Every structure is written in C-alpha cells, then in structure tokens.
Amino acid sequence: MKKAMIILVGAGLIASAGSVMAAGSVAKGENLAGRCVGCHGVGGNSTNPEWPKLAGQSAGYIAKQLADFKSGARKNPLMSGQAAGLSSAQMADLGAYFAAQKVTVGAKNEALAKKGQNLYRGGNSKTGVAACMACHGPAGGGIPPHYPSVSGQHAKYTATQLRAFKRGDRSNDNKIMSQIAFRMSHEEIDAVAAYMEGLTAR
Ligand code: HEC
Ligand code: HEC
C-alpha cells in the first residue's frame, strides 16, 4: 500500500517537472561554478553549516531548486540574486557539474543521531510521520532526480529546511515535505538532521 502511494507521488512529480530536466554539461557547469565557491565551497563542499553542500546532489534536483529560486517559488535573499541571471541550460550545466563532485562527509553528533535513526528508517506511526528512507534512500542517496540526496549534509542546514517546511516558509515541494515536517517535533528535527549528516550514500 505504502509503496503504491510513493510510486504515484513520483509519477506526478515527473509530469510536472519535465521542463527542467534537460541534461547539462559538466565542463560548462564548472566554468559557471566559480561564483558559487564563496558560499558552497570548492567542488560544492561548503564549510559553513548554514550553506548546503551541493557535491554529489542530483543534477535534476539542483536545476529545479535554481529554477524555483529564480521564479520565487523558493525564497532566499542570498540565492534569488544568484539564480536570477541563469538560463535553464545553465541551471542544467551547474547541476551536472555539482552532481559529478564527491561529497565530504561531516562529523555527526552521535547521541542525537542515534535518536534520529529510528525516525529516518521507520517514521513515527503515532504522529503519522512517514519514514524518510522511503524517498531519500536507506543511506540517504535519494532517488534522482526528484528526491534529493540528504547524506553528509550539514545538520544545521537540514534542520533549517525542515523547520521552513513545517512553518510553510518553504513550499516548493508539492506539499510532500511540508505535510511530513508539519507532524515532526523540534526534537525529531534535530535528531534526524544529525543522523542524516552521518549517512554516506553520496
Ligand atoms: C552568498 C552566498 C551564496 C552564493 C554565492 C551561492 N549560494 Fe546557493 N545557497 C546559499 C544559501 C544560504 C542557500 C540555502 C537557502 C535556503 O536556506 O533555502 C543556498 C542554496 C542553494 C541550493 C539549494 C540546495 C539544496 O540542497 O536544496 C542550490 C541548488 C544552490 N544554492 C546553488 C547555487 C549555485 C549553483 C550557485 C552559483 C551560481 C550558488 N548557489 C551561489 C548561498 C549562496
Ligand atoms: C514521499 C516522499 C518523501 C518522504 C517520505 C520524505 N521526503 Fe524529504 N523530500 C521529498 C521531496 C520530493 C523533496 C524535494 C522537494 C523540492 O523539490 O524542493 C524533499 C526534500 C527534503 C529536504 C530538503 C533537502 C535539501 O537539500 O534542501 C529534507 C531536509 C528532507 N526532505 C528531509 C526528510 C526527512 C527528515 C524525512 C522523514 C521524516 C523525509 N524527508 C521524508 C520527499 C520525501
């Protein structure tokens, strides 16, 4: 039953996001990526925990986020200016470049991560939180292009995104993540974010 639902959700996303899925060029993306280094780090491995790592993220997901920052569907004062001047071909090139980079895995908070593991793998049946693993993969690699990789990501960035989904401040997700995060407690958010930082799929 659960599996069937997830497949249906996936099919809907594919139909709606088709326009940003053109394959990009790694070489062209590398030329454009110089302006991203200041915040996202060399090769997309940001060292500031508030700025997400892009290394090893799926190309399609990166291109979609850039399109959403440009259109205003996802709001962030630092990123909207960055995305404003990019064409959809350039977004695909940047996606291809960062997808080809290797992520550096961070040091997780062990005690918190232990609490987060159960939620990540099994969800919370009492409050109706779905298992993260179903869409983001057992080791956090995601299911490209629509379900992003979450492995090795800074816990601070991840927790900020989950709270933004919970409040409704990030709403470019076809209501998938907002409905999940809405049911999560702040303790669960911090624990699962710590667990995901230690995952090593990408
Ligand atoms: C001045 C700092 C800054 C620069 C320069 C910058 N970014 Fe960002 N970027 C951010 C911040 C901060 C976020 C997190 C936004 C949020 O909280 O929603 C972000 C988020 C993103 C995301 C979403 C990642 C995810 O996991 O959802 C993508 C993709 C991205 N940036 C791509 C780029 C690209 C490509 C460039 C260069 C063309 C770039 N950024 C330049 C600060 C920056
Ligand atoms: C039914 C599928 C599904 C499930 C289950 C799911 N997610 Fe997601 N998640 C998504 C999709 C789709 C996106 C990307 C939305 C977009 O395009 O912006 C996403 C995005 C995210 C992001 C943002 C990543 C980034 O780089 O900004 C985080 C963090 C996240 N999910 C965490 C979780 C956690 C924690 C759980 C479990 C409590 C979970 N997800 C369960 C589908 C799912």
Provide the CATH architecture of the largest domain: Orthogonal Bundle
What gap, in angstroms, lies between the N and C termini? 29 Å
Bulk shape: globular
Unreliable segments (pLDDT under 50, ≥5 consecutive)? 1-20
In short:
The protein is mainly α and 202 residues long. It is built from 11 helices and no strands.
List the main descriptive attributes of the protein structure presented here:
single chain, 202 residues, mainly alpha, Cytochrome Bc1 Complex, Chain D, domain 2, 2 domains, 11 helices, binds heme C
Topology (elements, then pairings):
Blueprint: H1 2-16, H2 26-32, H3 37-40, H4 59-71, H5 77-84, H6 88-99, H7 110-122, H8 133-136, H9 155-167, H10 176-182, H11 186-197
Helix pairs in contact: 2-6, 4-5, 4-6, 7-11, 9-10, 9-11
This protein binds heme C (2 copies).
One heme C binds at residues 6, 9, 52, 64, 119, 129-130, 132, 134-136, 146-148, 150, 158, 161-162, 172-173, 176-177, 180, 192.
Structure description:
The chain has 202 residues and is mostly helical. It has two domains: 21-99, Cytochrome c-like domain (Cytochrome Bc1 Complex, Chain D, domain 2), CATH 1.10.760.10; 110-197, Cytochrome c-like domain (Cytochrome Bc1 Complex, Chain D, domain 2, Orthogonal Bundle). 53% of the residues lie in helices and 0% in strands. It contains eleven helices and no strands. It has helices at 2-16, 26-32, 37-40, 59-71, 77-84, 88-99, 110-122, 133-136, 155-167, 176-182, 186-197. Helix 7 packs across helix 11 (186-197). It is globular, with a radius of gyration of 16 Å. The structure holds heme C (2 copies). The site of one heme C has 17 residues, from helix 3, helix 4 and helix 5.
